[in-house]
Design goal:
alpha+beta; seven-stranded mixed beta sheet
Length: 272
């Protein structure tokens, strides 16, 4: 089979600014269609936001597309449709090029400082043991498995819920949040681009991979999780700035939340 036989299908080439030049795909495509942003939610788009399968996919197919990403430039994302009308194009895509203008450290410091400035002193107990002083980014974790393999494992666990698959034209999975126009964290942060920058940092430091998106949910696999409570507490502080609801409406405080992160290979986020 020649390279020409593996060229991306014509519809998928529309996802790329360069028409998918040089991209190949050795996995058979299930039935599906391109999803364009609804003009009511975004300005006229030059190209579709992503491709979406018509039917739910299994973990094996997700993994096959994940393994092809380096050649295809397409990152697979399981799409929870329980409350999000993905196919209706209720998305507001952004240019992945904007992500590089933000850093996880800068985002964390800004959220921390704004919260401290707005809340009464007694509320700082929520941030113990750090209080008003933002601790900065946590040290990297130690890889205990290959990131792609952990992502495949997590996708297999989630796929049993029966979700369709989206394909986003991105260099790395973190960028899918912006490129696909997901708005799940809108009530916490109006713009998804800085959140994508945070996930890029987690990809680098913790072997994290984007696996699934829902109306207000995000699922990441983690190949280098914190190995003890002290490290996990530092990571918990990052999670609090990224998704406060995870901590406040979950464990209640950073210490309780940190205990749940030790050795965990999946990070689940939801925004109220």
């Amino acid at each position: 089979m020649g390279v020409n036989d593996l060229r991306l299908p014509q519809e998928l080439r529309q996802l790329f600014t360069d028409g998918g030049m040089g991209r190949t795909l050795a996995v058979g495509m299930p039935a599906g269609e391109l999803v364009w942003p609804d003009p009511g939610f975004a300005q006229k788009a030059a190209r579709p936001a992503f491709w979406m399968s018509e039917e739910p996919v299994g973990g094996a197919l997700w993994s096959a597309f994940r393994a092809e990403h380096a050649r295809s430039g397409l990152w697979p994302v399981l799409l929870d449709e329980s409350a999000q009308a993905w196919a209706a194009g209720q998305v507001v895509p952004d240019d992945a090029g904007q992500i590089e203008h933000f850093t996880a450290e800068g985002f964390m410091a800004e959220v921390w400082q704004e919260w401290v400035a707005q809340m009464p002193a007694e509320a700082l107990s929520e941030l113990e043991p750090f209080g008003a002083l933002c601790p900065g980014l946590a040290p990297p974790g130690v890889l205990v498995a290959e990131p792609g393999a952990v992502a495949d494992w997590h996708a297999g666990r989630l796929a049993v819920r029966g979700m369709p698959m989206g394909l986003a034209a991105v260099d790395r999975g973190a960028d899918a949040l912006a490129v696909m126009g997901w708005q799940g964290a809108l009530h916490h942060n109006e713009w998804m681009v800085p959140l994508a920058a945070v996930i890029r940092s987690w990809e680098d430091r913790f072997g994290a991979r984007v696996v699934s998106l829902g109306f207000n949910t995000l699922e990441l696999s983690v190949a280098a999780p914190p190995g003890d409570v002290e490290h996990a507490l530092h990571v918990a502080a990052e999670h609090w700035t990224f998704c406060p609801d995870n901590v406040v409406q979950g464990a209640g405080d950073l210490i309780g939340y940190a205990e749940q992160l030790v050795g965990g290979h999946a990070w689940s986020f939801w925004w109220d």
